[in-house]
Amino acid sequence: MNSDRAQKILSDVHRTLLALFGLLIWCAPANTADSTALAPFRNSRFTLERGDVVAFVGGADVAAAQHTGHLEALLAVKSRGLGARFRNFGWEGDTVFAQPRDVGFPSLAEHLRRAGTTVIVLQFGRAEALDGREVLPRFRTAYQKLLDEFTKLTPQLVLVTPPPFENGGGLLPDLSTRNAELAEYAAAIRALASERGTPLVDLFTELGGVSHREPRLTDDGLQLTPLGHAEVARAFAKQLGLGEFTQRAGVPNKEGVWPNTAFERIRQKVVAKNKLWFNYWRPQNWAFLGGDRISQPSSRDHRDPRVRWFPAEMEKFVPLIEAKEKEIEKLAAEIHGGGK
């Protein structure tokens, strides 16, 4: 056997061994006691890496979470020093079936691409479950299709089961009776995660599933309160192995405020950053920015109508967002340095 052929065989064997080693690492069971990694996610190991851009995708629950900032604050503390960025793409009304947008508004996939997303956290199933069990097969098919689409952007996907429904109280309906149906949707999500080797955060089970009663998450059975968001973040973080940080943050009050002032400061910075991000990626005056009113005189320079001043003006949000992220990083470093 000549030396060139022998070298090629050795090279092929080396690549095969590396691939098998990578597969073994990917499929290794999570070690929830490992506090050195950001996240042993259930069913698959996953850690944030330097420069990751984490996108949160889903409906009303995800969209509302950006205004409370609990989960992102905990993740920011844990991932300090990595330069990770978090982008909330939640949109009220989004389901696995459709994500409708205004005229000219880029698709969700396009927004994820533009943001340089490397990790996508998907939370669907709660709104879809209200349509009943008969929709479950369509839900699974549509979710599979959505995951296939997002995998083209990044292989790093995380599936999240929805939190349980509750009794609205008073004259409001008792949505807790729908938790048996929601449990089937949660099971479908678990199955998808298992089949695809995708990390799973099982909020439904963590928060009690069908038998959920406490902690109270909503005031109407459906919409999460600030305290509800804090509790959901606590459950989420627990499944990521971040129990140490939830304990340090403390038990939030009914407004979702943490008693630990250091953690509360970083949460407030996250909320401020998210407000800037929200106004940047889904501005209320989209029609003038990229919709059906871009030809209006008010969206163009009054001295030269060929110049559109609005797009450049919107880009001024970017350094403001980056400045807030630097403040968040500084506060996270202080917490790790012994801040109280």
Q: What is the CATH architecture assignment?
A: 3-Layer(aba) Sandwich
Mean pLDDT: 88
- Fraction of residues in H or I helices: 40-55%
The number of distinct β-strands equals 7
Percent of residues in β-strands: 5-15%
How many angstroms does the end-to-end distance come to?
A: 67 Å
In what order do the strands lie side by side in the largest sheet?
4-3-5-6-7
Give the SSE string: HEEEHHEHEHHEHEHHHHHHH
Q: How many helices? A: 14
| Whole-number tally of structural domains | 1
Provide the CATH superfamily.
SGNH hydrolase
The major β-sheet equals: 5 strands, parallel
Outline type: globular
Features:
340 residues; alpha/beta; Rossmann fold; 5-stranded parallel β-sheet; two-stranded antiparallel sheet; 14 helices; 7 strands; 47% helix
What does the model show?
- The protein is an alpha/beta fold and 340 residues long.
- It has one domain: SGNH hydrolase (Rossmann fold, 3-Layer(aba) Sandwich), CATH 3.40.50.1110.
- The protein has helices at 3-27, 60-65, 70-78, 108-114, 126-129, 136-151, 179-196, 203-206, 226-239, 243-249, 261-281, 286-289, 309-314, 317-336, and strands at 39-41, 44-46, 53-58, 85-88, 119-123, 157-161, 200-202.
- β1 and β2 (44-46) form a beta hairpin.
- The longest helix is centred in the first third of the chain and has 25 residues, at 3-27.
- It is globular, with a radius of gyration of 22 Å.
